[in-house]
């Protein structure tokens, strides 16, 4: 009988604990003020990428030497199951860091909507960062719907398309096509000469996973619409004409049997496909794994093709860009110390050069192609030059907390079915628009 | 039961009770609470939305697909894994020596990570893999393994069946071992055919082990995730979208903790009811034939 009572008490206690835990907001303030020696410790979560971790560790050590009152603990962000989820659970569990990098604009929108981020523009020293890093222009595209800046972009990978120049030359072209009709012409000639090759061989084209749209639909859409915002606040502002043109191109390529949407091994590298979306991170990978791929010999890089009649200069493209945020759960001292650290890091272009050398990811600054600090690096790495030049044309992801749903709908209702020939472009756009508008309500 | 014995019983059961309390009961209560809110775990505020998450889940194409896909997997995976584990157990049973060694060999895939096996299968099934090159060039077969709904479902079921065959074969082998040789000897004297021997002796006596394998494999069907996540992402067109995949997407991609909890609760209820019904049917089948 007694044991029954004990068991009942344990059971009731567990429910109470669970209930109390449920009432917690999870947004507890960190206890990290200055210690008795006046040292403020800040936690910095680096991207789960060895080169980025090494960079931040080195920079943090140098910073602490010059600023002994601030200690920066750099640790890798967990990716289990995703880096976003690990940040979510850390915030919920009251163990969020002071700063983290690797935050895209969509996720930042989710975090800022939940009041988990500090508006950087409200912190002392923000204007100095923008000025000393020469990033006023880049930052304009990062303003959020509420007028604040929550993310400091570290790098901006304005995505480009790779073309197999060797195969293009065999088809009679010395440079990549710039417009849709030129692209279709290439596709036609390719299929006539090599029926087993494809213009674009990529399984992701038929996959509705949200982030995959950054590297096909948005690259083409940003180019076709001159960087039109797809969603503003809670309004769908996608440009119908540009969207239908993009879907029309995919439909035409499908009809020409120029798309392979099957899983294949190294399709571009093996020449199965001659066109592929390429980020700057691919260049060192190719240099190591596929040394036979030589820039401007075997392959070349180009801005996305545009619909006929659209200006082919300064073509906009999607920018895979991520940055730093400061968490609202950090103490005021930590937030201040974090801004001091950021200010110190970006007070000199040498730290951006070090970043570039370690990661090959173009720093998000306006003067990348004009600042002499970077000249020697780009002279040594010519394949990364087009990325530096494209930084001003990079359009970051949308700042909407429902970006995952929205991008899934683009794939599910428009892009994937058009690529598979299940829908015509107009119907695809209409269905997608309806679903997105419903989600934004 | 005396008080002393009762205390001892509680003492021995306490590690599991504490484990169950911490890792099952508290998360269950927590999840139930979350399922009635719109909380994303980050926001300082949340709203109780009542049954809204549940209503939305019932209307969602993702949840509807998860429900049906699980039963499709059940129809493909369970017969596949049960048949293959019986075959493996029979083969091992017939070996004169090193039965244990062979069983370990078959058991190894069970220990392999789903990520690794999916990665290997992805390579084997890629468009320009030697297997597909051969099928295309020699036999004129161009199969879109992961791009067509049935093929994708079949491929995932095959990988999981490959993984679990050795484990279930181990259970069935112990079932075979428990059947006394004297029964077969008596049957031989009575002149039974090999077919009769299997259906009239082996199968009925193996039924308890087979019952375990069936229930375990049905349980596996409701928890499929890694292979689907790695190979198909739930596609094409939701054809392989399982409960776990849908929960993962909602909770960790869309950060809708409340909504994902509601799906998890629905999935648990569906799993419990399904397994309960199938178990009862299997028990009835066994009892009617006098096997259990």
Give an overview in words.
The complex is a heterodimer of chains A (about 450) and B (about 290). Chain A is α/β, with parallel strands linked by helices and about 450 residues long. In chain A, about 45% of the residues lie in helices and about 15% in strands. Chain A contains 18 helices and 13 strands. In chain A, the strands form 4 sheets. In chain A, strands 1, 2, 3, 4, 12 and 13 form a 6-stranded mixed beta sheet that branches. In chain A, strands 10-5-11 form a 3-stranded antiparallel beta sheet. Chain A has a two-stranded parallel ribbon with strand order 6-9. Chain A is globular, with a radius of gyration of 24 Å. Chain B is mostly helical and about 290 residues long. Classes of the chains: A alpha/beta (about 450), B mainly alpha (about 290).
Descriptive key words:
heterodimer; A: 441 residues; alpha/beta; 6-stranded mixed sheet; 3-stranded antiparallel sheet; 18 helices; 13% strand; B: 292 residues; mainly alpha; 12 helices
H/E element sequence of chain B:
HHHHHHHHHHHH
Strand content of chain B is under 5%
How many runs of DSSP E, i.e. beta strands of chain A?
Answer: 13
Please tell me what the overall shape of chain B is.
globular
Name the assembly state.
Answer: heterodimer
The structure class of chain B reads mainly alpha
Work out the helix count of chain A.
Answer: 18
The value of Rg of chain B in angstroms is 23 Å
Which stretches of chain A are poorly predicted, pLDDT < 50 over at least 5 residues? 17-30
Structural class of chain A: alpha/beta
Q: Which two chains touch over the largest interface?
A: A-B, 49 and 39 residues
Q: How many beta-strand runs of chain B? A: 0
Mean pLDDT of chain A: 89
Provide a count of the helices of chain B: 12
Report on the biggest sheet of chain B. Answer: none
Report the radius of gyration of chain A as a whole number of Å: 24 Å
Shape of chain A: globular
Helix amount of chain B, in percent?
over 70%
Roughly how much helix do the residues of chain A carry, as a percent range?
A: 40-55%
Mean pLDDT of chain B: 91
Tell me the major beta sheet of chain A.
Answer: 6 strands, mixed
């Amino acid at each position: 009988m007694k044991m029954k009572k004990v068991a009942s008490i344990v059971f009731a206690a567990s429910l109470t604990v669970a209930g109390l835990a449920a009432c917690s907001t999870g947004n507890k303030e960190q206890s990290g003020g200055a210690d008795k020696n006046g040292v403020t410790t800040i936690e910095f979560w680096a991207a789960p990428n060895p080169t980025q971790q090494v960079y931040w560790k080195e920079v943090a050590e140098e910073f602490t030497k010059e600023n002994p009152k601030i200690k920066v603990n750099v640790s890798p962000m967990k990716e289990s199951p995703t880096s976003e989820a690990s940040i979510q659970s850390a915030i919920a569990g009251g163990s969020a860091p002071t700063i983290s990098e690797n935050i895209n604009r969509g996720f930042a929108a989710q975090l800022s909507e939940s009041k988990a981020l500090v508006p950087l523009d409200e912190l002392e020293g923000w204007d100095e960062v923008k000025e000393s890093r020469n990033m006023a222009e880049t930052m304009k595209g990062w303003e959020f719907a509420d007028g604040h800046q929550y993310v400091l972009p570290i790098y901006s990978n304005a995505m480009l398309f790779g073309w197999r120049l060797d195969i293009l030359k065999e088809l009679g072209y010395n440079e990549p096509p710039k417009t849709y009709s030129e692209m279709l012409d290439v596709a036609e000639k390719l299929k006539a000469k090599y029926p087993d090759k494809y213009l674009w061989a990529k399984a992701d084209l038929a996959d509705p996973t949200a982030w995959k749209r950054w590297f096909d639909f948005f690259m083409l859409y940003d180019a076709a619409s001159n960087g039109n915002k797809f969603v503003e606040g809670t309004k769908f502002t996608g440009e119908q004409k540009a969207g239908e043109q993009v879907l029309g191109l995919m439909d035409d390529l499908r009809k020409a049997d120029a798309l392979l949407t099957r899983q294949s091994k190294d399709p571009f590298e093996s020449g199965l496909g001659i066109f592929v979306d390429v980020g700057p991170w691919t260049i060192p990978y190719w240099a190591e794994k596929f040394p036979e791929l030589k820039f401007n010999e075997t392959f070349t890089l180009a801005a996305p093709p545009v619909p006929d009649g659209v200006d082919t200069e300064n073509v906009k493209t999607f920018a895979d860009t991520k940055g730093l945020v400061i968490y609202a759960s950090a103490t005021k001292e930590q937030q201040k110390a974090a801004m001091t650290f950021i200010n110190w890091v970006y007070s000199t272009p040498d730290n951006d050069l070090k970043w570039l050398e370690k990661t090959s990811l173009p720093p998000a600054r306006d003067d990348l192609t004009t600042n002499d600090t970077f000249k020697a690096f780009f002279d040594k790495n010519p394949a990364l030059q087009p990325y530096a030049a494209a930084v001003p044309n990079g359009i970051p992801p949308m700042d909407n907390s429902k970006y995952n749903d929205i991008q899934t709908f683009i794939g599910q209702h428009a892009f994937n079915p058009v690529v598979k020939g299940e829908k015509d472009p107009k119907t695809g756009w209409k269905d997608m628009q309806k679903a997105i508008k419903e989600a934004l309500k | 039961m005396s008080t002393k014995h009762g205390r001892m019983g509680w003492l021995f059961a306490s590690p599991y009770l504490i484990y169950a309390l911490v890792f099952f009961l508290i998360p269950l209560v927590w999840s139930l609470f979350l399922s009635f809110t719109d909380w994303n775990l980050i926001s300082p505020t949340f709203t109780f939305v009542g049954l809204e998450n549940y209503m939305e889940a019932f209307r969602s194409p993702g949840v509807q697909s998860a429900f049906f896909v699980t039963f499709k997997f059940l129809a493909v995976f369970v017969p596949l894994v049960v048949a293959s584990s019986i075959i493996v157990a029979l083969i091992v049973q017939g070996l004169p020596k090193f039965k244990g060694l062979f069983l370990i060999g078959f058991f190894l895939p069970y220990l392999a990570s789903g990520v690794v096996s999916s990665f290997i299968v992805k390579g084997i099934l890629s468009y320009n893999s030697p297997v597909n090159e051969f099928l295309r060039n020699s036999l004129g077969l161009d199969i879109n393994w992961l791009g067509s709904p049935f093929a994708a479902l079949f491929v995932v079921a095959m990988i999981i069946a490959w993984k679990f065959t050795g484990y279930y074969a181990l259970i069935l082998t112990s079932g075979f071992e428990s059947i006394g040789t004297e029964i077969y000897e008596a049957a031989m004297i009575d002149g039974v055919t090999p077919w009769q021997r299997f259906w009239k002796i082996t199968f009925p006596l193996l039924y308890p082990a087979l019952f375990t394998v069936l229930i375990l494999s049905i349980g596996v069907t409701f928890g499929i995730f890694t292979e689907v996540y790695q190979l198909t992402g739930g596609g094409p067109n939701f054809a392989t979208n399982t409960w776990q995949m849908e929960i993962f997407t909602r909770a960790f991609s869309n950060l809708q903790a409340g909504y994902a909890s509601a799906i998890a609760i629905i999935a648990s209820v569906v799993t419990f009811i399904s397994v309960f019904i199938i178990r009862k049917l299997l028990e009835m089948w066994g009892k009617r034939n006098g096997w259990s």
